Amino acid sequence: MTVWEPDVLPGYRQQTLALGVDPDGEGELVATLVHAGERDDAAEHAVLAVHGYTDYFFHTQVADFFLARGFAFYALDLHKCGRSWREGQTPHFTTDLARYDAELEHATDIIAAATGGAKVLVYGHSAGGLIVSLWLDRLRRRGATAAKNITGLVLNSPWLDLQGPAVLRTVGTAALRAIAPVRKKHIVRPPTEGGYGTTLHRDYDGEFDYDLRWKPVGGFPVTVGWINAIRRGHARLHRGLDVGVPNLILRSDHSVREVPNPDAIQRGDAVLDVKQIARWAGCIGNRTTIVPIVDAKHDVFLSLAEPRRAAFDELGRWLDWYVEWSRSRCATEQCERG
After folding, report:
1. Rounded to 5 degrees, what are φ and ψ at 163?
2. Which of 101, 211, 297, 298 is most exposed, with minimal Cβ within 10 Å?
């Protein structure tokens, strides 16, 4: 039985998804599905949004944008992240990105029941963009994409390769593989002094408000086991995926070096190398549209007003195409809801 409870965000509800015992030994796992509004049984389209690392769902302006276009909106806080973190767990820690598949598919089942079979547009930011792309490729290979009603994908600055010197992607990655089985929770990068986070939160002269326990300004520590899982995901993506659905990739037009001074990193991606996103975007598969947003931050929808508006404009234009494409495709295939 579906049980919704009030969320920390006014006007939103949440549902806890029980996932069983953590294979990495940190107790019982849960994920949290967040829903904007009350009823969605008339919605033709729905969104399932997935956050990145040191992140969780608080992006009500993104939800409002989709809601204004008639989309039902859902967001998933993955296990050990945000609302889903439990005492004694290492935030965001996993040693296998495929372990997210169960909660992602559970969420799509709940959306299907609530909407009567709305077409689902998956949305992923940063590490979440990598996670959902790998999941959709596995779903397609199982022949289950249509059964889950998934018809589109939007990626917001997806993490498609390891930023930094080339030696980290070669020698460094080989070292991770060697030590991950025995030192999986060893910290390879501690929290920073702030950097990107100081350009966002209102306590640091940013525009946005969110829970600093769930999204600390300096980020969470990066562990060997987690970054090794990410690098295995990168390697799989670099061999080529096919997510099975049309996709939009939004990113900044340039990167900036992350420094403690927020004024120096207000315009540009201070987290990822956008040249790597451009290089590997073709590995997502299917019909891909790639749009660089001038002066956008890492999360293009948390940028300054002008690039943020440009990002929403580009998303809106693509959604216009996507809705018409999905309707014409459905008509050709004689789809029926419910």
Report:
1. -75, 165
2. 211
Neighbouring-strand partners of residue 187: 223
Q: Please determine, for residue 1, whether its predicted confidence score (pLDDT) is greater than 60.
A: no
Distance CA(86)–CA(101), nearest Å, equals 20
Q: How does residue 41 score in pLDDT terms, banded at 50, 70 and 90? A: confident
pTM of this structure: 0.94
Q: Are 211 and 58 in contact (CB under 8 A)?
A: yes
Q: What pLDDT does 331 receive?
A: 64
Positive or negative: CA dihedral 103, 105, 111, 113? negative
Strand pairing of 119-125 and 150-156? parallel
* Domain locations in the chain as residue ranges: 5-328
Read off the pLDDT of each residue in 106-121 and give the average, rounded to a whole number: 96
Q: What is the pLDDT of residue 176?
A: 75
- Angle, helices 127-141 vs 101-115, to 10°: value is 80
Residue spans of beta strands (DSSP E) within 176-314: 187-189, 222-223, 247-252, 288-293
DSSP-derived 3-state class of residue 38:
coil
Q: Find out if CATH 3.40.50.150 is the number for domain 5-328.
A: no
Burial class for 328, CB neighbours closer than 10 Å (0-12, 13-18, 19+)? exposed
Q: How far, rounded to the nearest angstrom, does the alpha carbon of residue 180 sit from its chain's CA centroid?
A: 24
**Listed residue (64, 26, 51) closest to 104, CA to CA:** 51
Poorest-confidence range of 128-142, 180-194, 293-307? Answer: 180-194
As given in the structure block, the two tokens for residue 54 are 């040191």
DSSP 163: -
Residue 269 has a CB neighbour count (10 Å cut-off) of: 28
Token pair of 233 as six digits: 């995901």
